[in-house]
Amino acid sequence: MRKSYLMLAVFIAGMATLAIELSASRLLGTVYGTSNIVWANIIGLILVYLSAGYFLGGRWADRWPFPTAFYRVIVWAGFTAGLVPVIAQPVLLQAARSVERLQTGLMVGSFISVLLLFSVPVTLLGCVSPYAIRLAIEDREHAGRTSGRIYALSTLGSIFGTFLPVLVLIPRIGTANTFVLFSLMLIGTALVGLFMSDRKQFVYHLWMPLVILGLAALTASAPIKDSVGQIYEVESGYNYIQVVERDGVRMLMLNEGQGIHSIYAPGMTATYGTWDYFLAAPFFYPPETEIEVKRVGIVGLAAGTIAKQYTEVFGPVQIDGWEIDPMIIEVGRRWFDMNEANLNAIAQDGRWGIAHSPHTYTVIGVDAYRLPYIPFHLTTVEFFEILHDHLDPQGTVVINVGRTPQDRRIIEGMVGTLQVVFESVHVVDVPQTFNTIIFATTQPTSAENLVLNELELEAGGAHPLLVDVLRRSAENLKPTPDSGVVFTDDRAPIEQLTNAIALRFVLSDQMDLLR
């Protein structure tokens, strides 16, 4: 019985280790995002802590080869894991304010502080497997079999710890409560083990779950963030989602909140942001083409700003919008009036969704940032070939791409890749932003047609927003760069490029422009 329970403890510890790692990414993601730099830091330090735990666990097991000592390690791992969200909460709230103000020193200091919080519980969890091996081996002839069984159980637990938080727990009970749940699971497992091995130690540690539950109750109503104008926040399986309202305008923010993914106010037409420029997509063709917008596809629907503007300007044209996070679609309907009868909101990955769409489109828009990155699979020749195959004979792809004032390498790479598939590519910078809108057409087109279409549409009494967007697009046209860069599914170093551009920007004097 006691040996079987030892194996159960190993399984629970393995599950908790991966659950804590994945929950750590969500805890930090609300402030720092989920870039591969953040992930690299989390994974790297978790491995450092586990390595220290393996080393210490082996030494402690040889010095104190007793079940009581083993379960004490687990009970303290569980208790300190439960403290992480409580201690991290005020630190992360301050860090969120620092990120909003771009106070680099406080941002970095808070990030390191929170990562250090994981050192104790993860190091103690690293002690579990070597400790269990020492206790379980009774016959040296079966040492290999016993060790293999323990590592197999630990890894099996880790598999459960990978899927449970992401797919089940965090979307339903939140990140902080996920920490509390695994904390109590570890403490409960250890207390049962202590009850079997040392009743006095069992009694000594009964206070731990009470403290964790008390702290969880005290902090249960605290917001994840307290941004100015915040009216709603929720965690989904993909994102931390925040709705902020300032001066009567609602904004959708995700994760670290540095980007605005949708904007809405009753009666609003022009946003003077990136969304407006998507309306210009059909008008690189000459006026005599008489392009009719029949159907629109949007990869990265968010809360529906682009769809709302297309409906306003072109009427009830059919729109298919792909948004990978179903919770964002719900937020869009509730808080952003994303209830147009002509909008078909689809909770799918955009590339998969449009590849399997039975329709062709006059315009396909791609606005699928997970800041600061565009998902690499939405930047490649293979993806653009899928889009080309789903466009009308005179169709246009329009993409929102990030840059800095002095570094346009991603623009150049996207242009070079689009030119492999499309006949013409045009570039428009959005004023006073770090965004560029790239247009690619299936037939040869000219940027001069923007002005010609603007004049004809204005004379014909077209929607004022459309006329204004064409004017702004023409005014902010940039030369299409010559580029030999081509992104493919096999090689699309978007993350590395984005990291290099962001680092160069942060280390330059341009940061002063944002303060």
Describe the model:
The structure is a single chain. The protein is of the alpha/beta class. The protein has two domains: 2-219, Up-down Bundle (Growth Hormone, Chain: A); 269-514, 3-Layer(aba) Sandwich (Rossmann fold). It is 55% helix and 14% strand. It is built from 18 helices and twelve strands. It has helices at 2-32, 36-63, 67-100, 104-117, 119-126, 128-136, 143-173, 175-197, 199-204, 207-219, 305-314, 326-335, 350-355, 381-389, 409-421, 448-459, 464-475, 494-506; strands at 230-235, 240-246, 249-254, 260-264, 295-299, 318-322, 343-346, 361-366, 391-402, 424-429, 435-441, 477-478. The strands form two sheets. The protein has an eight-stranded mixed beta sheet, with helices on both faces. α14 packs across α15. The longest helix is centred in the first third of the chain and has 34 residues, at 67-100. The radius of gyration is 27 Å and the shape is elongated. The N and C termini lie far apart (63 Å). The relative contact order is 0.10. Residues 510-515 have low confidence and may be disordered.
